[in-house]
Amino acid sequence: MQRRLLICILLVNVILISTSAFMLVDVIEKKEKAKEIATINECSMFLFSTLEALAFERGRTNVVLTSKTPLSEANRIFITERRRQVDTFLSDGINRLASLNPEEAENLKKQYNQLKQLRSNADVQASLNLADRDISFRTTWFNESTLIIFHIKQVIEEMEKPTSELGFFDFYHHFQLDCVEFRLFSGSSASTLTSVVNQGKKLSPSEYENFIEYRSKADYIWSGIEKSVFDINRAELTEKKDRVYNDYYKTYRPFQNEVLQKAMNGSATSSDAARLADLSVKAFDSIFELIREVNRETARSVDALESRAEEQLERAMLQFFLAVGFALFTLVYFRVRLFAPLERIIGALKSIVDGRPVIPLEEELKRKDEIGLLTQGVKMLYTSLKETQELKAQNEKLATQDCLTGLYNRQMLEQEVVKLIAHAERYEESLAMILFDLDHFKKVNDTWGHPIGDEVLIQTAQTVKKVIRSADHFFRIGGEEFLVLMPHTNIIEAESAAEKIRMDMDTARHPVAGQVTASLGVSEKKAEEDFLSWYKRTDEMLYRAKKLGRNRVVCYIPKLAPVASMNVEWRDEWNSGEATIDSQHKALVNLASEYFYYALQPAPDRKMIISLMVNLVGEIVKHFESEEQILEEIGYPDVKEHERIHKTLLAKAAKLQEDYVAEKISSFAFGSFFIDDIITNHMTHDDQEFFYYTQKRAE
């Protein structure tokens, strides 16, 4: 026993020291990671500043190249200053990028040299009168400078990938990139209109189409920016966002719309172009002020990350040395205070067992370690523990309910699944399984303690209960692992339910632990398939969801023959009486049918799906804008509430589209959103509220 106890103490000390050493190494790696993130953030800040200056240079140079006269002094000063900023920021950004990705830094340097050559050609063209210029060079300038801008944006995106596990950094970077895209598309629409006005010509259909496309994309991105600012919930960001809205949407856009009407009939003047340019500078400056504010917020977060890493390193080193000291102390202490007396006690016990005289234990008697009491106490304790363990094992075997969450437990699963499978096979009904567990749940327990972890498990059970049906069977089968059996449910319906579970988990917040997401695997039981095979197949989907980055649904879709189509039929009761709204509704329904045709194929083309998704969302945006304008005209009293509903739907559509691009969801999830939210809930419910007004107007 002494030997085993000594081995146990040694093992505990080894584990303690090893754990401390592992934590020390881990903290050192985190500190290095924090330094890398700081470098990435610093580099990205210079590149974002480069994008700001380059976007202005691109736009003003494009305007100058379409002007009837050579380069003015005011424009020369403006372009020169922006070029100086581009040169400074890009040079600093390339220097920092070289320590992170030398190859990419070299590529960016080559593009920078191409930009310099492009500038020289632009200067030559700008010095000439319009009639003497190369007409095609303006397109060359705009396209090539845009490619450079998007290349810099891609570099920022690539730099961000190693930091994806840091939620705040990943979120802020995507937010900044959204702001850049908003600036580029809004700037492209502004440049298109200004260049036409500068030339004193009428806006062509193709130019009008490009203008509307750029502006629609900017508006779509803006809805996502507003949601991100709302999620961040910081007064400084909200203030900067409101300034963009005021400068761009309330000041610049109304005047842009006026000039657009003039340009369509060729009556716009050079003074209109000058005022457009002046207003655009303030509006687009405010966009980059929003980006700079996020930069400052990111810098604060990175500084805090570095500080925490430094503090954790100090604590880890202290813990390591304490562990070594504790190990030495325990070995000495247990040898003097326990092992030596224990050897004498063991000798006395052996003597009792062998019937020999007991050796004197005077010192042990002073410590009240009498052989008789110790032996009797050990025997009573052993008997009591054994009875307790047997009773506990019996109770656990009989129990069917998880005492923490109130859900069915694994024992109940073994009973219920037999009945459900038998019923499904007997009546040839579909039966689906959703298997999920919580992402990084160990971190919740390690950070906040097991009581908070228990609260998260209870919250998870409550969240999922709100999503699933009363006929579904919900089990907790492990620490943070859950299983849902769904009778009368095919794979598409189960995937839709799983996606709703994932989204509700994604948006739920525990007051202490915050966001805790889930990874889900989904499958439908095959004919004559046993439970273990079915469970293993579903568990593989769960494992794949984790491998793909967590917080996503992975569904087992068997290879089937191509699906012909899934048509969404128009119904007469959906007619509002307003021709424009009804024609747009029908167009959306037709687009939905086209989307489902490709989405329901066994191996859908992701590029095609994304293209259809973008097109569908774009048409929804256009329809919402048109519908809101019509409702304003007819005096619909609840138009503001209807606009709020539109904004909410667009935000959800943007999130689903983003999740599909990130491979977090399948194409079915977006299709389910369109059927459930756009058609079923909105077109056939919310829109019904204004039918009285549109039909009355039609009469």
What does this protein structure show overall?
The protein is 76% helix and 4% strand. The chain is flat and about 110 Å long. Strands 2-3-1-4-5 form a five-stranded mixed beta sheet, sandwiched between helices. α5 runs antiparallel to α6, α13 packs across α14 and α18 packs antiparallel against α19. It starts with a helix and ends with a helix. It folds into four domains: 298 residues, no CATH class; 28 residues; 146 residues, Alpha-Beta Plaits; 127 residues, Hemerythrin-like (Four Helix Bundle (Hemerythrin (Met), subunit A)), CATH 1.20.120. The protein is built from 20 helices and five strands. The longest helix is centred in the middle third of the chain and has 85 residues. It has 699 residues and is mainly α.
